[in-house]
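During the reporting period the student researcher (J.K.) took over the structure-prediction task from the postdoctoral fellow and processed the backlog of single-chain submissions. One of the processed entries is reproduced below for the supervisory committee.
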Amino acid sequence: MATAFAYARVSTNDQAIKDNSIPEQFSRIEKFAQEKGIEILRNYRDSDSAYHDENREQFKAMIADATEKKPDYILLDDSSRFARTRKASIETKDLLRRHGVNIVFVNEPMVDPKTGVMVRRYSRNKK
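J.K. obtained the following C-alpha cells:
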C-alpha cells in the first residue's frame, strides 16, 4: 500500500470559516487517499500564523520527516497550500523528488508520473 503525509493550511480567518477550513481540506485529502488506496501516516497543519514561509513550523517538520521516512506522497488540497513563493515551491519540490516523494494536489488536474493516467480531483462544491 502506498503511504503519504497530509498537509493543510489556512492563512486567514476567512479561509478557516469558509469551505477551505483545515478539517474540510483534510476531509477531501482523506477521501482521495481512501479511493486511491493510500495510507495517510500523519497529518500536518499550519494556521493563520503561517502567512510567511518561515512561520510554517508543521510544514518544515513534514518536509524533514518526508526526507527521512520517505512516504510515497505528500497530499495537499491544492497547490496554494504548498508554498508562498515560486522559489520556495521549486526548491522544496526538488528536495522531495530527490528523496522519492511525490506531491499530489487532490483538487487539481495531474498526470500520475508512474502511470501517465490523469488522476481525478475533487471539487470543493462536491460532497
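The committee noted the following: The chain is about 35% helix and 25% strand.
J.K. will present the remaining backlog at the next meeting.
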